[in-house]
Design goal:
The chain is an alpha/beta fold. It has six helices and four strands.
């Protein structure tokens, strides 16, 4: 099994949206397991009762730092984009890129093969040139959107 870190939206303005994002993150983890991967979603793990409180900035910062530490040693960062890309997800992508951790962009339920001529929209948004460091699967033409 390859070790993957899951990136998906988490922060939300309402409790209802937060519950929806938690459910989505759980489905992302299940998707990774179904692919034979060993996933970790630090935003699900560290925000459980009795661990860290996401509404306290100093505790949130600890959780983010812990998640970034895992990105640096993972085989791959998997970014699930059905609900868009949050600022926190962009930070995770930057950490992965700087560490040379491969990046996969995924959507649940609608996997479409990437075409080699595509350029990863996240790399474009972050100003990363095509094939930079060979980390983005879409830039390499082997990922899914």
């Amino acid at each position: 099994m390859i070790r993957v870190v899951v990136e998906s939206p988490f922060a939300a303005p309402t409790a209802r949206e937060r519950r929806a994002f938690v459910g989505y993150a759980r489905r992302c983890v299940a998707d990774c397991l179904a692919r034979g991967e060993a996933p970790i979603a630090s935003h699900l793990l560290h925000t459980q009762p009795g661990i860290l409180r996401d509404d306290r900035p100093e505790e949130r910062a600890k959780g983010i730092a812990a998640g970034h530490a895992w990105i640096r040693v993972a085989d791959r960062l998997v970014v699930y984009v059905n609900h868009g890309i949050s600022a926190g997800m962009i930070e995770g992508i930057r950490v992965a890129h700087a560490a040379g951790t491969r990046i996969s962009i995924r959507r649940l339920e609608h996997h479409v093969p990437a075409h080699a001529a595509w350029h990863c929209p996240l790399c474009v948004r972050l100003g990363i040139p095509p094939y930079a460091g060979g980390t983005c699967d879409l830039c390499l033409g082997v990922g899914t959107v």
